[in-house]
């Protein structure tokens, strides 16, 4: 049986490639999706006869169209040799027959793929199915997610934050680490955990906190939740990186929030815990094209010389990593503070900018820094 919602999505996709009207009928001959929306819900006599009889297709000519069925081609859709419904195209049968065959094949292939995805998901529990749908399905709609939310008795508008954990060179199985996260006393029934295809742990952690306190409390709540897990992996000498995405209360944006975690995993590349909100500027800069960066900064890169560039990357990079704290940045570089100040003065003198006292100067210099890194 073809699901109505799935049929509607099929029509939307197929309509991008043909101007012919397409109808999809269920096993009772009812039009469940159509390019002509006003036909949805009406009875299609030919489709009903095809589903109940032995024929696999039927052409409706102009002479037959006075029976209430439009001129065109109707074909039974099979999946695993079972009749699932009928697809029909309206128009001159001689003209549309090749198109009708392609549409029928496309519908069958898409149904087979959906069936394969369903069978693949059956081996997972409902929460795992929900996570797989969020992370890997390219064409889900809100109704797909909502049915899992309802079945799991989850609060759909609960604020949740994605957490991606990368454990490096671990002899401990991913399932064992996952159990540690689920057995945690701070784990809520509103949370869900899974292991990604890359072997990362991903948690959508619920944050039950009034909006007035959420920004000041959510980091503490995450740290509290992860404390026992981090203690275990430290004792097991497992190196880890933890990437915390932005807060979300709309499940349709969970996928993108997770992708922000993946962006951090690919671009930060060091051990520790990292919050996306601390890297928004860097993320937005990474989204700009190199053409735009060249237009802004190419002259400076060419004229300032490699010696200046090398000092700039090392000095500004240390300041960025240490939140512009001169003491921490000099320790990070293993140089005396006065040496760092001297290097920074050389940069400030040439660019006529001071990132320690003027925010607009800091923004410019950070953009220039990330441009040089990407170069």
Descriptive overview:
The chain has helices at residues 4-14, 45-52, 93-121, 126-136, 142-151, 174-182, 214-235, 254-267, 280-287, 290-304, 306-321, 326-333, 337-351, 359-374, and strands at 22-25, 31-34, 57-60, 72-79, 82-90, 160-168, 192-195, 201-206, 239-244, 272-275. With 375 residues, the protein is an alpha+beta fold. The protein has 3 domains: 4-122, 2-Layer Sandwich (Beta-Lactamase); 126-286, Alpha-Beta Plaits (2-Layer Sandwich); 288-373, no CATH class. It has a 5-stranded antiparallel sheet, with helices on both faces. Strands 7-8-6-9-10 form a 5-stranded mixed sheet, sandwiched between helices. The longest helix is centred in the N-terminal third of the chain and has 29 residues, at 93-121. The chain is elongated. The mean pLDDT is 88.
The CATH architecture of the largest domain can be named as 2-Layer Sandwich
**Spans of at least 5 consecutive residues with low confidence:** none
Radius of gyration: 29 Å
User: Counting H and I runs of at least 4 residues, what is the number of helices?
Assistant: 14
On the 0 to 100 scale, the average pLDDT is: 88
Distance between the termini: 54 Å
In CATH, the topology of the largest domain is named Alpha-Beta Plaits
Number of strands: 10
Main pleated sheet: 5 strands, antiparallel
- Helix-and-strand structural type: alpha+beta
Numbering strands along the chain, what is their spatial order in the largest sheet? 2-1-5-4-3
Overall body shape: elongated
Strand fraction equals 15-25%
Kindly state the percentage of residues in helix: 40-55%
> How many structural domains does the protein architecture include?
3
- By CATH reckoning, the class of the largest domain would read Alpha Beta
Strand and helix order:
HEEHEEEHHHEHEEHEHEHHHHHH
Protein name: CdaR family transcriptional regulator
InterPro entries: CdaR-like_regulators, Diacid_rec, PucR_C-HTH_dom, PucR_C-HTH_sf
Pfam families: Diacid_rec (PF05651), HTH_30 (PF13556)
Organism: Eisenbergiella porci
């Amino acid at each position: 049986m073809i699901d109505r919602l799935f049929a509607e999505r099929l029509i939307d996709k197929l309509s991008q490639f043909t101007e012919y009207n397409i109808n999809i009928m269920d096993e009772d001959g009812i039009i469940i999706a159509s390019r002509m929306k006003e036909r949805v819900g009406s009875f299609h006599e030919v489709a009903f006869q095809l589903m109940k009889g032995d024929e696999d297709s039927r052409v409706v000519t102009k002479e037959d169209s006075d029976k209430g069925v439009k001129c065109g081609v109707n074909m039974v859709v099979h999946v695993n040799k079972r009749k699932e419904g009928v697809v029909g195209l309206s128009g001159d049968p001689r003209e549309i027959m090749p198109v009708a065959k392609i549409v029928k094949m496309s519908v069958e292939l898409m149904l087979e793929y959906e069936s394969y995805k369903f069978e693949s998901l059956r081996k997972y529990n409902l929460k795992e199915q929900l996570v797989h749908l969020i992370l890997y399905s390219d064409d889900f709609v809100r109704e797909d997610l909502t049915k899992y939310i309802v079945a799991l008795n989850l609060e759909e508008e609960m604020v949740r934050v994605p957490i991606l954990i990368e454990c490096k060179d671990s002899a401990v199985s991913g399932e064992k680490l996952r159990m540690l996260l689920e057995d945690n006393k701070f784990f809520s029934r509103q949370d869900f955990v899974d292991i990604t295809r890359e072997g990362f742990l991903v948690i959508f952690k619920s944050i039950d906190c009034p909006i007035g306190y959420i920004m000041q409390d959510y980091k503490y709540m995450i740290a509290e939740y992860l404390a026992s897990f981090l203690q275990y992996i430290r004792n097991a000498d497992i190196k880890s990186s933890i990437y915390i995405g932005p807060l979300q209360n709309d499940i349709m944006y969970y996928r993108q929030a997770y992708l922000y975690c993946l962006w951090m995993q690919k671009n930060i590349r060091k051990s520790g815990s990292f919050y996306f909100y601390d890297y928004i500027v860097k993320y937005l800069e990474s989204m700009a094209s190199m053409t735009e960066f060249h237009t802004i900064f190419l002259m400076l890169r060419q004229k300032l010389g490699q010696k200046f560039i090398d000092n700039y990357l090392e000095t500004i990079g240390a300041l960025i990593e240490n939140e512009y704290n001169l003491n921490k940045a000099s320790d990070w570089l293993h140089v005396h503070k006065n040496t760092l100040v001297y290097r920074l003065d050389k940069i400030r003198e040439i660019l006529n900018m001071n990132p320690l006292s003027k925010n607009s100067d800091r923004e410019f210099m950070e953009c220039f820094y990330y441009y040089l890194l990407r170069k």
